[in-house]
Write a structure and sequence with these properties.
Blueprint: E1 5-14, E2 19-28, E3 35-46, H1 48-65, E4 70-75, H2 78-84, H3 96-106, E5 111-116, H4 123-136, E6 166-169, E7 211-217, H5 222-225, H6 239-255, E8 261-264, H7 268-280, E9 286-288, H8 305-311, H9 313-321, H10 333-350, E10 355-360, H11 362-372, H12 379-382, E11 390-395, E12 401-408
Parallel strand pairs: 1-4, 4-5, 7-10, 8-9, 8-10
Antiparallel strand pairs: 1-2, 2-3, 5-6, 7-11, 11-12
């Protein structure tokens, strides 16, 4: 019989770090504390952190088997909790595939909350992990508390000093209260300003009350045509990119002759594009905004897509599987999304009823459009944005959004 909500307690350990390792996971009824499922396994030689992630994965899989839609995941591993909430980067390459597996499981539920608990409140899962390691070593097994007597084991009430549960939303769905909050973004939204939760309407809205945002991807660079990751590297516009910038400037001037401001990522490929647009709009100043800078691709910067696939296959798979995962030495899309959210909110507040041009990069623009359309993370890998393409959306004070065009390139000269 399916249950709606469950509590997961998960733990893992290694005798040697690395050494013989195992994990334990307990799934409970949140009201009665009854143990619904247990999972435990010895996993050979591994580190503590790997075992902790394996315990979380096993617990999430067990909760999915029960048909749960809400999960409260409790662990005594601060590292795993903080990484799953998107607040700490996952720097160790061996943990990225495990974090991606856990993230994919999280997306199967409506809501997952992660919270850290003291070790003494995680005794049951700890005992299961130790029993698995003992069994693998041929030692007598110690019974986990509450698992052998047939009596429900109740979770200890939370003390006032415990860290509160942190919500992490799963994949998007129309009825979800936090439909777009993947990876427990640190920035919280004001009620009524989230397009995924704003009351739906088929009725056209007055555009004079909206802030119109014209999102422009910068013109092409040499790295663009070579299909290289270009994050924080300051690659200038190529000759064709400069021509694209001029054509885009004329198009934006026709779309928004009375634009109030031109904002730009501080990187030169964007500021050069923005300066062409500002000139076509009568000489508006270009205002660099750090929140619109490209994702930091870390060690991948300057490498072609094929080179990254060859040199970092596991890290690339993990990155493609979850917005919480950052490239080695880089920034996750969850982190980019936090600053894009901040930038969008600032625009809505600073320019009510006006038109603003923002010149940015692929990742920030995709994230802005994903959220405007209340789409899932797969959108990020399915939307193509051309160099110097234009997207337009309207934002209303109550959180309503209308996307009017995406990746308009009709103004660009032929290749």
């Amino acid at each position: 019989m399916a249950v709606r909500a469950v509590v997961i307690e998960a733990d893992g350990g290694s005798r040697g770090n690395p050494g013989p390792a195992g994990y334990g996971a307990v799934v409970r009824d949140p009201a009665s504390g009854e143990v619904l499922l247990e999972r435990a396994e010895a996993i050979g030689t591994a580190t503590n952190n790997v075992a902790e992630y394996r315990g979380l994965i096993a617990g999430l899989e067990a909760a999915a088997e029960l048909g749960a839609v809400e999960v409260d995941a409790r662990m005594d591993s601060k590292l795993v909790v903080e990484q799953m909430c998107g607040r700490w980067q996952i720097k160790h390459p061996g943990l990225r595939p495990l974090a991606a597996r856990a993230a994919a499981l999280v997306d199967r539920f409506d809501t997952v909350r992660f919270s850290w608990i003291p070790r003494d409140r995680n005794r049951h899962a700890d005992a299961l992990a130790n029993a698995a390691m003992d069994a693998a070593a041929g030692k007598p097994s110690r019974s986990a508390p509450g698992s052998s007597a047939g009596q429900p084991s109740r979770p200890t009430p939370s003390s006032s000093g415990d860290e509160p549960s942190r919500p992490v939303a799963g994949a998007d769905s129309p009825g979800r209260a936090q439909a777009r909050e993947v990876a427990a973004r640190a920035a919280t939204r004001t009620a009524g300003t989230d397009p995924a939760t704003t009351k739906a309407s088929w009725e056209p809205r007055p555009t004079f009350t909206a802030t119109r945002l014209i999102l422009v991807r910068h013109g092409a660079t040499e790295w663009t045509v070579q299909h290289r990751y270009a994050g924080r590297a300051d690659v200038p516009l190529s000759e064709s990119g400069q021509a694209q910038a001029r054509a885009t400037a004329a198009r934006v001037a026709a779309l928004a002759p009375s634009a109030a401001a031109v904002l730009s990522s501080p990187l030169s490929r964007c500021t050069a594009t923005a300066e062409a647009i500002a000139g076509a709009l009568g000489g508006l100043p270009v205002r660099p905004q750090d929140d619109w800078i490209e994702c930091d691709f870390g060690d991948w910067d300057g490498h072609t897509f094929a080179e990254v696939r060859d040199r970092w296959p596991g890290e690339l798979d993990a990155w493609l599987a979850s917005t919480r995962i950052a490239p080695p030495g880089g920034e996750s899309f969850t982190e980019v999304g936090q600053r894009v959210d901040r930038a969008m909110a600032a625009l809505r507040e600073a320019y009510p009823g006006e038109t603003v041009v923002v010149v940015s990069h692929v990742s920030p623009i995709k994230l802005a459009l994903r959220d405007a359309l209340a789409a899932g993370d797969a959108f990020l890998h399915r939307l193509y944005l051309d160099a110097a393409g234009i997207s337009v959306l309207d934002m209303w004070p109550d959180g309503g959004i209308a996307v009017r065009s995406v990746n308009d390139t009709a103004h660009l000269p032929p290749d």
